[in-house]
Amino acid sequence: CALGDNHVHSSFIYRRLRNHERREIQREILSILGLPHRPKPFSPSKQASSAPLFMLDLYNAMTTEDAEEDTLLETTGKAISLNTLGSSRKNQHSAPYGYSRAPVAWTSQSPPLATSHDANFLNDADMVMSFVNLVERDRDFSHQRRHYKEFRFDLTQIPEGEAVTAAEFRIYKDHSPGRYENVTLKVSIYQVIKEYQNRDAETFLLDSKKIRASDGGWLVFDITATSNHWVLNPQQNMGLQLCVETMDGRSINMKSAGIIGRNGPQSKQPFLVAFFKASEVLLRSVR
Amino acid sequence: ATGGKRKNPSRNKGRSQPKTSQASRIGDQNLSEQKQACKKHELYVSFRELGWQDWIIAPEGYAAFYCDGECSFPLNAHMNATNHAIVQTLVHLMFPDNVPKPCCAPTKLNAISVLYFDDSSNVILKKYRNMVVRSCGCH
User: Nearest Cβ partner of B127 from A38, A43, A125?
Assistant: First the structure.
């Protein structure tokens, strides 16, 4: 590969371009990528995380799958499914843009990407987006003395013509030593339906998981229906609420439950990831 | 990048020559076949050289490839010609001034994936299907 790489890296800009030539080339390639202009994200180090490392994992899986499909199609004419994802992990793509990835920390702790459930979404997806968590207010006590975290994601940035085929909310939970050592906890995610000034918001339970307090790892909640609803009705997107309770219904403080929020390490911050399928053939705008 | 090559006069000579006998024409075409048979050429688009490292996470660039070369009689196996191209070639031999030769074009296309930040720093992994030439042939 290394040899191939060198061979491939022939520079296509043979001479110093004049500014307008460079701009023309950039505009041409942006239109091939279906982008009206070049994005200007604020610098990665300052932003709230949208899980670039997780997405890099998906990118590796996707490109490895394409490469294997090509070679297999050339040799046997048969397509393969993503179930070989596990093998794809060996070909990790190094993170070229200064993302110091600790492969052991992330991959061994990374979300359960290799589940066939994810693999199917990735197989079908034309696009996958992970969204920046816009707001996170820890309310230690709500009016009804409930600990909860709030999250909000802006789904209006989705390119036209893309339909959500699956969406997940992922949050990391460290094992929580101490007094909850042997307790079973219930982590629940709610969609905020309506907010009030002086009392708790009206919420709708989307998903919940029972876990041992001593466990650690990623919790994945399916919020496909809610995401589709928000895409169609952006004004009704009032975010999510996550709360942790003991089995007898006592609300627990997030930190003692080991839930990692916005202030955790970038590789463990909560995020929403959505898988899309293009609902129509996108044509380049004619110039 | 191939612009200069396409304009070289020797390449056009075949076309502007006065009509000659069939045999010499075939000789000519052999010559054109040696010139450049239809094949895949490399064009590497480097996001890095475009100064896009701040918003494209991966890849650093992609091999875009393009198809270029002659589709002249005889079309033999290595040109990966379609049946239609063979008919096009025969009709061109009969009416060279009216009917063009078959052209060198992609016969198979590949997808590429690009991982990048959008304006709100969300991360987008997009698969562009039918994006990159995998093989070329005469059509």
Answer: A125
Q: How far apart are alpha carbons B42 and A8 in whole angstroms?
A: 8
Which pLDDT score is estimated for B95?
Answer: 95
Q: Which residue type occupies A13?
A: I
What residue has token string 């040899």?
Answer: A3
Q: How far apart are CA B43 and CA B3, in angstroms?
A: 13
Residue window 164-223, chain A: list those with CB within 8 Å of chain B.
Answer: none
Contact A9 B61 (CB under 8 A): yes
Helix axes A116-124, A52-75, angle to 10 degrees: 70
- Helix, strand, coil percentages (3-state) for chain A, rounded to 5, are 30, 25, 45
Which residue, A100, A155, A163, is CA-closest to A127?
A163
State the average pLDDT over residues A181-185. 81
Chain B positions in Cβ-Cβ contact with residue A63 (cut-off 8 Å) = 59, 113
Tell me if ipTM is over 0.85: no
C-beta separation of B138 from B104 below 8 A: yes
Tell me which DSSP letter residue A183 carries.
Answer: -
Q: Name B133's bridge partners.
A: B109
- Beta strand A240-246 with A184-194 is antiparallel
